[in-house]
Amino acid sequence: MSANNAPRQEGGARVELSDRKLRILQAIIDDYVSTSIPVGSRTLSKKPDLHYSSATIRNEMADLEEMGYLDKPHTSAGRMPSDTAYRLYVDRMMRVGQLDKADVDFIRTYFDKRVNELSEVLDATAKVISETTKQIALVSVPQLTGVSLRRIQLVKITDTKAMLIIVTDSGLVEDTVITVPVMMDGSQMEQLSNRLTAIALDVPIEQVSERIRSVAEGMAHEYRQVMSEVFESIDNSRAKKAMVLDGAQNIFKFPEYKDIGKAQHFLELLDTKDRLYALLGKTQDFEFSIKIGSENNSADLKDMSVVTATYRVGDKKLGSFGVIGPTRMDYARVLSVLNYVGMSLNEILSCFLEADHTSPRER
Question: How buried is 63 (Cβ within 10 angstroms: 0-12 exposed, 13-18 middle, 19+ buried)?
Fold first, then answer.
């Protein structure tokens, strides 16, 4: 995939640079991403594809630094890319290609061997992303928002407990255990399930609880008790924000985090799941979102980039997935991985959810 044909993503404004400056800047970015060592003019002058003298390169680097594309570390004579440089690289210079056969085979094999149930899909997704990108992978668990209901099923499992199964029009199945009156038998459960389904069928889930509340007011006490459990469970499911994280140990492989205190601070950030979930939630309708350093509007993430994508079944967005890592990131490779994993995830989810759609499971 070329830069012009790269997946649609959030981006910044274009800044015009001469072709020579662009070539030198790209060489600096490529070298720094690969080595994590600030780049000097002498290093660049030895590159066979840059036919410029050291003096010319020094002058261009001085201009790039003045324009805000290069930063000078205190402990090095070399330069490293700024957030602005990475943004320009992502928007104009990056070439996103196809994954090589080894990566494709690894992803396919991992999904084939590790995914036998729908509940295993997101764990496997986080694992293959962290393994192939060497970054920290995040996958949001689908929320019950923007969907309508197909079925509400109650299955008694003990004298006082029942399994509440909610099936949405996207095929997602949410289940939870609720408390029910001792005297309510399986036949009554089935009748109540049919009544609840009739109330909720094709109704946006945001409106279902209110409909159940209004109908429950005219019912017998034991039914009102169960109805209350049902709408509270639906409200809790809608509010639930869960995510899968994998590869946190990769932080210790980044030279940027060789300071234990800095690494510990970042690991503490990973424990604040609400903040990480908010990062994934901002993907919105962009196929890809790339937030670089200060673009994250968080002091804790000023040295990090967050690259995310959405996953869907049909036209319904189910959630988001992506990586978080140092701004010194191989963005082209990360996007290649996310693009392929996204296609695989869509295929896997479609198979599972179509099966659930055909025959809702009593689990």
Answer: middle
